[in-house]
Specification:
Distance between the termini: 22 Å
Number of strands: 29
Strand content: over 45%
CATH topology: Methylamine Dehydrogenase, Chain H
Oligomer: single chain
Radius of gyration: 20 Å
Number of domains: 1
Strand order of the largest sheet: 1-26-25-24-23
């Protein structure tokens, strides 16, 4: 296994650290795929393709299909379906994203918003007067933001009243992040990282950074923004200033990433997965089947679980030091 994909400074790319010691003894992890029984796979396939994934914990994967939310308990193998729209509604109201405001989970379609309160077992459904392509969510204290292709709503968490609406015009957005503090919407536009300042006078799109190749992903940590292309990672401050470009070593290409407060995971085109543990400042590596990578549209990582969406189907791997994990 080739374990070194990024330049030496890459392991600190989202920490704001200027340098770190580099060691060749990456911890080697083994990836064991978790599978559902055949009858559950057949049931899930009827709701294909899956459009979004969320690891609500290292033992639970939430998925949305064409009509339903699916909860897969990775410890017990139990799969639970919650239908949100009828088959006849799926074309007018396709389910697009699942997210959280820190308390409850939300699923958005182009003209509806569903709040899932797991403790009470309630599902609240809100109709959105102006249908528009849903992009996702962001939490902010007692409020959350519903982000759409042409406008964004600031919504009271408890009353669901719309506190503010901001209009803009962006098209063909595939990856975005929203910073509630600066009220900037960041997104990828081919080889550019662009942003719209909601509190700005015109809400026009501005270029923050240019990429050497097509942008693949854009994510946010507590410290900064990170843009991904096949050949490099770009670190940006929340003010939009480029901080660092981290090139990929060798001929391999970056394909996906998943960033959280504890770990930063990067998936390469050869199936190599590199994980940087933020608190421990250590790096580990694992290998997944390389034929999955080309069709992987998104990736989630939490502690020792990797979940990817490959050609509209979920694939889940548990990482362990012990090869006996292949039981």
């Amino acid at each position: 296994m080739r374990r070194f994909g990024l330049a030496k400074v890459a392991v600190v790319m989202a920490l704001g650290i200027s340098k770190i010691g580099w060691s060749s003894d990456h911890q080697l992890l083994y990836a064991r795929e978790l599978s559902l029984p055949a009858y559950q796979l057949a049931t899930l396939a009827k709701d294909a393709p899956i459009t979004d994934l969320r690891l609500s914990s290292p033992t639970n994967l939430l998925m949305i299909g064409q009509t339903s939310l699916w909860s897969w308990d990775l410890a017990s193998g139990k799969l639970v379906r919650t239908q949100l729209v009828t088959p006849s509604e799926r074309f007018a109201s396709p389910l697009r994203h699942i997210g959280s405001d820190g308390l409850n989970d939300f699923v958005s379609s182009d003209n509806k918003l569903f709040e899932l309160a797991w403790t009470s077992g309630r599902i609240l459904r809100f109709d959105i007067a102006e249908p528009d392509r849903a992009l996702g969510f962001a939490g902010e204290g007692d409020n959350f933001w519903l982000i759409k292709a042409h406008h964004i709503f600031r919504i009271d968490r408890y009353t669901k009243a719309v506190l503010a609406r901001y209009d803009y015009n962006i098209s063909d957005v595939t990856k975005y992040v929203f910073d509630p503090q600066s009220r900037r919407l960041w997104y990828l536009a081919q080889r550019e990282v662009r942003y719209i300042a909601l509190d700005g006078p015109d809400r026009q799109s501005h270029v923050s950074a240019k990429l050497r190749s097509m942008g693949l992903d854009l994510q946010m940590t507590k410290h900064e923004l990170v843009a991904l292309s096949a050949s490099a990672l770009i670190r940006l401050s929340f003010a939009g200033k480029p901080l660092q470009s981290v090139p990929v070593e060798g001929r391999r290409k970056l394909h996906n990433m998943a960033l959280n407060d504890v770990s930063h995971a990067y998936l390469f085109d050869d199936g190599n997965l590199e994980i940087y543990n933020v608190p421990l400042k250590s790096t580990s590596a694992a290998q997944i089947p390389s034929d999955l990578v080309a069709n992987t549209s998104l990736m989630r990582f939490d502690r020792d679980v990797l979940a990817i969406l490959a050609a509209g189907s979920p694939r889940v791997f548990r990482l362990s030091v012990d090869k006996l994990g292949d039981e």
